[in-house]
Amino acid sequence: MTRIGELLAKRNGEAREITTAQAIEAILVLADIAAQKGIEWAIGGGIAVQIYGFTRATEDADVIAFDVLDFPKIRELSFGGEGYSVEISGGLKVTVDWIVRDDDYQDFYEAALTDAEEFQAGLKIITPEWLVILKHLAGRGKDELDVLWLLRENDLVSRELIVEHLKRVRGRYAHTIVKDIENVFLYADFMKARDERGK
Questions:
Q1: Which residues, 6+ apart, have CB-to-CB distance to 39 below 8 Å?
Q2: Cβ proximity of 162 and 132 under 8 Å
Q3: Model's pTM, two decimal places?
Q4: Whose CB has fewer CB within 10 Å in the chain, the N or C terminal residue?
């Protein structure tokens, strides 16, 4: 078999880009396992952004949790947690990153999980404010695009609440990150004004 043939055969049956519905189906499989051990969890990452209305591609689902699951892992996450491959209807395999941070950002993730809200029966999601914070801390290009989209949406994100969250978690040491995220607020406002002028 050629190199390309091997590559395609290896990826056969694995989701490349997943829909919100496919992600939720995979997450619900793991939610049943989490419930048996009383592990709290909530949807985060790109799927959360999709749920809030941003049309963007994602290849896996992110869940923030307080503990890992008794489920075969496909990888360990460098910042804490495990990746799982979950088979859903049609034999499609969806990767779910089950994030249990054990690094310098652990306190932010735990606070975000504590504040998560149920958005439909059995499903909790990170609030838009916490999503902005966590994605900003991640610092990747795609995360910053998500942050800018979230901040430009009308009546979705409370900027005051973002600042309150940061101060609650880091106290008097929050000054630098608050200043940094306030600069992102300004840039989002600039982009929104530019978008509206272009209409």
A1: 65, 66, 67, 69
A2: yes
A3: 0.88
A4: C
